[in-house]
Amino acid sequence: MSTHRLVFAVVIALGITLFARPHLALDYVTIRQGGSRRDIAGKIEVEAADGGVMLLGRDGALWPVTKEELLDRRSDDKPFAPFARDELAKQLAAELPGFKPHQTQHYLIYYNTSPAYAHWVGSLFEGLHKAFYNYWTRRGAVLHESQFPLVAIVFDGQESFARHARAEIGDTANSIIGYYNLKTNRMTMYDLTGVESAGLATARNAAARINQILSQPGAERTVATIVHEATHQLAFNSGLQVRFADVPFWVSEGLAIYFETPNLESTKGWRNIGGVNRVNLINFRKYLSRRPAGSLELLLCDDKRFRDPATSSDAYAEAWALNYYFLQTKSETYVKYLAALAQQKPLIDVEPSERLKQFKQFFGDDLLAIETDFLRFMRSVN
Questions:
Q1: How far is CA 315 from CA 120, 155, 192, 257, in A?
Q2: What pLDDT is recorded for position 195?
Q3: Which of 72, 78, 111, 192 minimizes the number of CB atoms within 10 Å of its CB?
Q4: What's the whole-model pTM score?
């Protein structure tokens, strides 16, 4: 289950409008959040009618700020520009004392565990990055490279990870192995091998432990979780989706599950997009026996099932199944639907009726016919 939707909540008054000043201006805001005062330079992306703002920092972090939290703001004629890679690396080094950098073509990975594990993570992410862009561009999606180097932080064990993560996601940190944070735009995880915390972090020991982890039955879910969260990071940095826009859960979560399916015969633990996700296929078939009428419309219009522990497993399974069905049978139409969703503005809620209307514009008005074909197709999947 993804946690990226849970990491940051903010309420900005109704009446949000896009900020109308020149897009390239550099904005400076002084804010007070959680008792701390800080100055941030960036670009105001959204402004609320009551004076609240959402600012994109030069490091890629998004800062939704209420009117009460905003102490001061100004701008100048300097153009907004993201941090260069070396500038961002310097910031990360200051934030994470004792961590070492591992840089790949698209990622900045900061870690305090074994170099072998950091290299494995980097290789996994770069493989996903290449496959993600190839997959979507072959299907006609228009993507762009990330404005910012993609950041991942790797802790040496669960305890240090949880101490850091609790400040961002609360007690959820005690039960997960990694997450993507919509606000900071970073992936955070920990070394699952445990060699660093056990004092065994030689290159040979680390490599052996990685291979051992991948050979265990539980490795499928381990690798799937990491790839799932990294897929969210790519989707929100490539233009496929927009951070803090009201993207239906069935889309964002279903796509991440679609990409997560591991291939444990690969030394990287993953190299497969769109393979049948066995865990979710089993869960979906279990759900079919009790699936109520109207389940499809509810999935399209309402995200509550994903938040309720009693129904979340069924919702995630159905979200994967619906994405699998569309991408296997109607990929051209689905890509156009995704492009329309990517035009939505941040922090503006979309009413259920509007969600349904938008869906029907691409897939047709007859939900019963869509549902019938969807279920027929999924019953044939092995």
A1: 32, 31, 28, 12
A2: 53
A3: 72
A4: 0.88
